[in-house]
Amino acid sequence: MAGNKKHVSYVVSVLLWLLLLIHQCILGRGGGGGGGGGGGASSSGSTILMDRRLRYDFYEKTCPNVERIIHNVGCDASVLIASSGTNIAERDAEINLSLPGDGFEVFFRAKRALELQCPGVVSCADVMAIATRDLVNLVGGPRWEVKKGRRDGLVSKASRVGNNLPQVNQTISQLITLFKSKGLTILDMVALSGAHTIGFSHCKEFMNRIYSYNKTFDIDPSMNKDYAQTLRTPCPKNDHNLDPTVVAFNDVSTPAIFDNAYYQNLQKGLGLLETDQKLFTDPITRGYVDSMANDQHIFFSYFVAAMIMLGGVGVKTGSDGEVRRDCGFFNS
Ligand code: HEM
Ligand SMILES: *[C@@H]1O[C@H](CO)[C@@H](O)[C@H](O)[C@H]1NC(C)=O
Ligand SMILES: *[C@@H]1O[C@H](CO)[C@@H](O)[C@H](O)[C@H]1NC(C)=O
Ligand SMILES: *[C@@H]1O[C@H](CO)[C@@H](O)[C@H](O)[C@H]1NC(C)=O
């Protein structure tokens, strides 16, 4: 049904923002939706995590209803997510990923609504931080207070997106190094990876695991065989024109719910990405996976703590950067 398709692509585009925000935060130097520190000195190390100029009441005088305005726009999304929940609870979804259509709409609409009430006041980086929090909460995840006062970067990230994403072929120790360089611990890394309890991945991200893992194994031996088989249907071998609209859920058991099933999946070899599964096979991180799998409250509390840390990584504040009027364009 066309309607359902639209809903799904709507959800995906919101998740995509979360993905880009998070992935860039972690990898881009001074990253984050409003980051973009460019080539500035990086000698200061990564121990300064929360910029003290970020505050809960940053917009108290200038835009007191900021959270409610963003939330109200997001309410449309909640209806869509709820109504499409059963439709997308299939193992593999065929979705329309062409984002220019209604893509990014929640985010842009939230910003436009803010511009009507408090023009030029609330940064896109803060809108994204709040919208991300709302989204996680909307799909069953925890809620936390977002510190505000981020400024939007003046360096375009577009050209850096590709290179800045964490790679599925990285080793756990490479990932640990990466997260550590942003002041995030191993525990933070495992907890944040729990974001893969929602969202999708394209075939190319796990093709090698289901067809040509290495000389000994076709299928990655850490992967559940039946699971690998089911993934082969939507992602055919030697298909050099993999359909970009075909994706698989990152969390095969409860794809639309923010819960700890992602970790329970890992215990059963049901991790989709190689890096997901390695969190369980690698003894360095396995204990954390087990504790999150055992207790959802533990997952939520570590996730929140890590998201709050992440929300302060590499942000611009004060008079750095700008407050973009249109999140798609620099002001000048
Ligand atoms: C630990 C290293 C990580 C790796 C290697 C990784 C890799 C990936 C890959 C390859 C995809 C699929 C992209 C696509 O096919 O379009 C993905 C999706 C996603 N990732 Fe990660 N990721 C990592 C950590 C994180 C973290 C820390 C978060 C958030 C806190 C996160 C949030 C997401 C979300 C929400 C999606 C789904 C996006 C959508 O449905 O459009 N990831 N990730
Ligand atoms: C995706 O949506 C766009 C417009 O929203 C449409 O033009 C395009 O044909 C759709 N693609 C698929 C594969 O359905
Ligand atoms: C991962 O794969 C990409 C290409 O897909 C390659 O450029 C990169 O070097 C690989 N990284 C590791 C750690 O193997
Ligand atoms: C293939 O991968 C498995 C599991 O990671 C490993 O034990 C095995 O040594 C690998 N084989 C080759 C030929 O690299």
UniProtKB/TrEMBL annotation:
In which residues is substrate bound? 166
> Looking at the keywords, is Membrane present?
yes
Gene Ontology terms: biological process: hydrogen peroxide catabolic process; response to oxidative stress
Compartments, record wording: Secreted
Q: What class of enzyme is it?
A: oxidoreductase
Disulfide-linked positions: 124-327, 203-235
> Binding of Ca(2+) 2: at which residues?
197, 251, 254, 259
Give the range the annotation lists for the signal sequence. Answer: 1-28
Which residues are in the Plant heme peroxidase family profile domain?
74-331
Give the main location: secreted
Q: Which cofactor does it need?
A: heme b; Ca(2+)
Query: What are the binding positions for Ca(2+) 1 in this chain?
Result: 74, 76, 78, 90
Reaction(s) the record says it catalyses: 2 a phenolic donor + H2O2 = 2 a phenolic radical donor + 2 H2O
Give the family per the record.
Answer: Belongs to the peroxidase family. Classical plant (class III) peroxidase subfamily.
Its name, as the record gives it, is Peroxidase
The organism encoding this protein is: Macleaya cordata (Five-seeded plume-poppy)
